[in-house]
Design brief:
Layout lengths: L2 H8 L10 H8 L2 E2 L6 H6 L7 H9 L3 E7 L2 E6 H25 L6 H18 L4 H10 L6 H13 L3 E3 L9 E3 H4 L9 H16 L4 H8 L3 H10 L4 E6 L2 E6 L12 E4 L4 H4 L13 H4 L9 E4 L2 E5 L10 E2 L6 H15 L2
Antiparallel strand pairs: 1-3, 2-3, 4-5, 6-7, 8-9, 9-10, 10-11
């Protein structure tokens, strides 16, 4: 088994199969979207013809949704997965946020939650897409003031309740809309096991080969739920042993199409790294600190043949590559840099 080549193929970073961003996001189930500007490249670099306009169209139409779904962080999900995955993941995400609030000595009484929630709903109902600044202005009009941290908790809880989701795409600032208007009403019945099976399949089909620990980390679910999800896939998934660890592989795993010599400009918080605990498969341990720190801050990285080998600057015209070791040069990176800049500037 060549886990690096297989990850590149199934992550759609080599020989991508999809022509539009909705297919990519649906394939992954959820994609980390911490960096508002660069989440677009994270999706589109996995399409056959990257297009910033195609991403905006899918985002504005509600086919792709951004919200705090797993681990208390931002993800992109396809509209078709919104209600089942929210129903599956929200309870654990709520407990994570409650833990953060307790650590920060923040308590939000139910009366405050209800009052603020009603104002947030009124704002997005009137504006369709509202920014956090719009919320601050509306709250101030009702003589309610709070710091940004507290308001962020209100917004996250509104997302996890299925009230708010992402609004239209803007250059720099996130916006919010009513989930039921953007996506459609919540189904009367949601089968949890069906949602768990779907999330499990989408994780492994897009991240394989991956371990149980990888899935637990990524999903934020309990290990028992993750084991059950794998069990629900039955005989369509199996394990392969590699360097002392068991990795899961699905029957639909892509193994052909890998080509040597390709450089990739990978944005920060990309699924290629953040989607695993077993990052050492593609990230040499001695360079881990150059890709991410212990506080969960991820940097833009360069990969050659799937192995992380440098950093780059997404907002510089020459991408300013900095390689970790010898054997690489900026000239070899030019095709990847030109492709990214063409995407960024259109």
């Amino acid at each position: 088994m060549n886990p690096v080549a297989i990850r590149l193929l199934n992550q759609q970073l080599t020989a991508p199969q999809f022509s539009n961003p909705v297919e990519v996001v649906s394939h992954f189930g959820a994609m980390q979207a911490q960096e508002y500007r660069l989440m677009r490249w994270a999706v589109e670099m996995r399409t056959q013809k990257p297009s910033s306009k195609a991403f905006k169209k899918a985002f504005d139409s509600g086919q792709i949704i951004r919200l705090h779904l797993m681990r208390g962080t931002w993800q992109l999900i396809a509209a078709e997965d919104y209600w089942p995955f929210l129903n599956l993941c929200a309870p654990k995400a709520d407990s994570v946020i409650s833990g953060w609030m307790h650590s920060n000595k923040i308590s939000i009484p139910q009366s405050e939650l209800n009052r603020v929630r009603a104002i947030l709903v009124q704002v997005v109902s009137e504006m369709k897409s509202a920014t956090k600044e719009d919320f601050v202005e509306a709250l101030a009009a009702k003589k309610i003031t709070m710091d940004d941290h507290r308001l962020s908790y209100h917004i996250r809880m509104a997302e996890l309740s299925g009230t708010l989701c992402s609004g239209d795409l803007q250059p720099l600032k996130a916006t919010y809309s009513l989930a039921e208007k953007k996506i459609g009403p919540k189904p009367r019945v949601i089968n949890r096991d069906k949602a768990l099976k779907s999330l499990t399949l989408k994780y492994f089909q897009s991240h394989q080969p991956a371990t149980l620990e990888d899935f637990v980390w990524w999903s934020g679910l309990n290990k028992s739920d993750c084991r059950k999800g794998i069990e629900l896939l039955g005989s369509t998934i199996h394990t392969e042993h590699w360097e002392g660890r068991d990795f899961y592989i699905t029957d639909g795993c892509r193994t052909k199409g890998f080509r040597k010599g390709k450089y990739l400009l990978i944005p920060p918080y990309d699924e290629y790294l953040i989607g695993y605990k077993s990052r050492d498969v593609v990230l040499p341990p001695q360079f881990r600190h150059k890709a991410h720190n212990n506080s969960g801050i991820f940097q833009p990285v360069i990969a050659r043949d799937g192995i992380i080998c440098g950093n780059w600057s997404p907002f510089k015209d020459d991408c300013q590559p900095e390689f970790f070791n010898e054997g690489h040069n900026a000239k070899s990176l030019q095709p990847a840099c030109q492709s990214y800049i063409k995407f960024r500037d259109t």
